[in-house]
Amino acid sequence: MNAPSPLPAFPATSYAFTPWVNARNLIGGAWVDAVDAHGSLDVVNPRHGKAIAQVTMSGAGDVDAAVQAARKNLKVWQDLPVRERAQVMYRLRELMLRDLESLSWLVSHENGKTYDEAKAEVLKGVECVEYGCSLPNLAAGTQLDVSRGVNCQVEYAPIGIVAGVTPFNFPLMVPLWMLPQALVGGNAFILKPSEQTPLSTLALGELLREAGLPDGIFQVVQGAREVVEALCDHPGIGAFGFVGSTKVAKMVYGRACTSGKRALCLGGAKNHLIVVPDADIDVAADNIVASFTGCAGQRCMAAANLLAVGDVEHILDEIKVRAARLVLGNDLGAINSPESVARILRYIDGAVQAGATVVVDGRSQSADAGGYWVGPTILDGVTPDMAAAKEEIFGPVLSIVRVKDLSEALKVENANPYGNASAVYTTSGDVARAVMGRAEAGMCGVNVGVPVPREPFGFGGWNDSKFGHGNITGWDGFRFWTRVRKITTKWALQSDQNWMN
């Protein structure tokens, strides 16, 4: 086991402002300052609008230091049987459940989401770790006698040193989309978390050390663009995962692939929910409100456009009523930054100027003084050509686009360049089949507005929501972080002859 934790536990047990330690790099089993520093940033609690810590912006020198440190114990880690590597995931699961409260409050404080949302994120991370525990049973490979005396088999070999870049909105869960598969697969992993939310990664690093992961097999390099580019470019890194905006995902995918890496980069979204007149009013209203307001709309699975088919006024009215009841600070968390608040407001104001109507207005709402807030907002009369209908707002804003029939709804959905998620609200199996068969999205739902696939099903969209092949979680994730080795063996001379003899 590794040395005791040098970091204090996060002490918060409420939303009260609570500062914590500064975010440093985890290199070779130790928390260290950057050797290639490019200044520092405040880590701000969005609920209070005040810094709870600082994070140093590292550079290419720190990425190289992490690569060199990873090499020291890499062979030791790879030589362990896969079942022994998975034991670290078993211990990590128990440690995360032990620290569930402190991890949840830490996520809430650095991200701004509500405690319940933060706890749900931690528990989803636990589920990802549990999938890692199962990998020894799934990664057994196959073998077959392909000829007399000749056997072929498949095994999954590690790539070596790999890297991932994760976003601010799920600072604990998204790293755990990647880590269990990569680590159990025998790799050393270098993580660059969002510079806005680097603190959950500190806790995760401590838990992995306590779980018995060798030094250098999980490392953290804090920073921004310089670190991302260095991870893409470094010749010692063999695979690269990314979750963020479409613009950046596309750029880093190209850069990582140019340097010879395999890459899988998830981008943004503009998800469409379709509601038809026969939808159950309670199921639809509750679910649609939760979809567009959950995590303050700051998630790639959030509802963005509601395609209202025909006469669904009774459902729309109930959606408006239920959205207006939500209380900022209790039911809805903060927005991550003042820049994001300004961006969200620009989209709302722009839609109004283009002819839309604000039927639920959250622009002037706030909760704790000094924080960054936008309340639930619903725009009606939005047309597909408006920016609010085409571009990712990433806030608690729902745009109602009225269409005459299901064919027009699918035409609008299909014209969307993104392909992350789509859903339909209906009690008709025929309508559900029509939408599921024609929606241009990788994750689809029937009466489920956030159709996140649960493990072992993989997470991943289509079109401009993903660059690369496969899903980042589940079995696809394990295949992404490993290489398939085919082994053909022959031990005896056969009396007859064929091409393999």
Side by side, the strands of the main sheet go 14-15-16-13-12-18-19
Based on helices, strands and strand pairing, what is the structural class?
Answer: alpha/beta
Number of helices: 15
- Proportion in helices: 25-40%
The span between the termini is: 50 Å
Number of domains: 2
Which parts are unreliable, with pLDDT below 50 for 5 consecutive residues or more?
A: none
User: Shape, please?
Assistant: globular
Concise synopsis of the structure shown:
By secondary structure, this protein is an alpha/beta fold.
Describe this structure in words.
The protein is α/β, with parallel strands linked by helices. The chain folds into two domains: 38-267 and 465-485, Aldehyde Dehydrogenase, Chain A, domain 1, CATH 3.40.605.10; 271-446, Aldehyde Dehydrogenase, Chain A, domain 2 (3-Layer(aba) Sandwich). The chain has 15 helices and 22 strands. The strands form six sheets. Strands 14-15-16-13-12-18-19 form a seven-stranded mixed sheet, with helices on both faces. Strands 9-8-7-10-11-21 form a six-stranded mixed sheet, with helices on both faces. A hairpin with a 2-residue loop joins strand 1 (25-27) and strand 2. Helix 2 runs antiparallel to helix 4 and helix 4 runs parallel beside helix 5 (175-184). The N and C termini lie far apart (50 Å). The model has no long low-confidence stretch (mean pLDDT 96).
